[in-house]
Amino acid sequence: MKKHINQIVLTALAAAVCAMAVIYTYNIVTVLKSEEAHRMELWAKATAVLSSPSADESATMEVLLDIIQQNNTIPVVLTDSADSILMSRNIVESATDSAAIAKALPGVFAAMKAEGRKIDIDLGNGTMQHLYYSDSHIVRRLRYSPLVQLMPAALFLLFAYVVFSRARRSEQEKVWIGLAKETAHQLGTPISALMGWTDLLRSGGVSTTMVADEMEHDVGRLRSIADRFSKIGSKPELTPAPIDDTLCRTVDYLKMRVSRHVHIALSIDPDARHMTVSHNAELIGWVIENVCKNAVDAIDSDTDGLIGVHLSAAQHGWVTIDISDNGRGMKHSMARRVFDAGFTTKRRGWGLGLTLAHRIIRQYHKGRIFVQSSEPGVGTTVRICLRAPHADAT
């Protein structure tokens, strides 16, 4: 739920950043279009006056005044030869208050003089005037445009980094907690069995050979568990071997340990028999166990459960293992999250089994594992895809 909220917040922030950039750019473009329209009107008016044989001095003066008055963006100050201000225009953007303009004028004029952007106007008879100017308001806005657009983007990236870092840290904590619980769970069964055999030996009256065989079996189980967990933190060795042998051993082990009301059926397509696949038998067996245990948990205790494990050969040398159950099923939104660390629908679950299965298949075996289909009240099918030695990487 929290992850979903973070995704919504990040999406909203990204949309806000994009909207700000679009609005800011649109405003600048609108001002530029308006300026261009005014200039084109002046161009047309000047062309008409110059082309008219009856043009008089008053018409020419009108055009010149229009040119001066149409400057609505460039700050200008006209002074006499002693730099006494005669006229100013566009000192404060969009300001019409004379008091505000008068207050800002000295500072703006000083900045113009410091910039040295001056045009000398010779009026004749030794009379000079000076025209000081600076960048137009639209040029200033364009100058700060990258900063205005990059700052929200930078803040968004910083927020996203913090959110994802916290999410990753939270997921790692869930993985470690779940891994500890999974270890205790895995070790619990063979340790309990060994303790039971020890009590029987002390009580006497039992076949020591039979007890020794069973204890050896449980010790082997402990060794297998230790081997599995040791491979999680390092890259396991993949060995080419028939995948159906690994599948048969795992299913046979599960049949002896699942509830009596659940039946596990294994089927293998003829073209998939003895098909060699590079894999780690211990880890693949662990994946099958985790998926099947989740399937058992999804089956109500008052119904006859059926878990089907089907091995088939797909195209380009791939093999698929479909694990289907007739359990409660789940909605599509839930099916997308079953491999997330910490996600579980069980009251006392810790949501790590399928996460480990996903890691083993995707990272160690370069395969795929996903919910092929699921329907509430009908059941679920989880598909595992593994590549044969010469499988097409696509």
Q: Would you kindly provide a written description of the structure presented here, covering whatever features stand out?
A:
By secondary structure, this protein is an alpha+beta fold. It has four domains: 1-72 and 138-143; 75-134, no CATH class; 169-231; 236-387, Histidine kinase-like ATPase, C-terminal domain (Heat Shock Protein 90). The protein is built from ten helices and eleven strands. The chain has helices at residues 2-51, 57-69, 98-115, 137-143, 145-203, 208-232, 243-255, 281-297, 332-335, 353-364; strands at residues 76-80, 85-89, 118-124, 127-133, 239-242, 262-268, 276-279, 305-313, 318-325, 368-375, 379-387. The strands form three sheets. A five-stranded mixed β-sheet has the order 6-8-9-11-10. Helix 1 (2-51) runs antiparallel to helix 5 and helix 7 (243-255) crosses helix 8 (281-297). The longest helix is centred in the middle third of the chain and has 59 residues, at 145-203. The model has no long low-confidence stretch (mean pLDDT 78).
Q: Can you lay out the helices and strands and say which pair or pack?
A:
Blueprint: H1 2-51, H2 57-69, E1 76-80, E2 85-89, H3 98-115, E3 118-124, E4 127-133, H4 137-143, H5 145-203, H6 208-232, E5 239-242, H7 243-255, E6 262-268, E7 276-279, H8 281-297, E8 305-313, E9 318-325, H9 332-335, H10 353-364, E10 368-375, E11 379-387
Parallel strand pairs: 6-8
Antiparallel strand pairs: 1-2, 1-4, 3-4, 5-7, 8-9, 9-11, 10-11
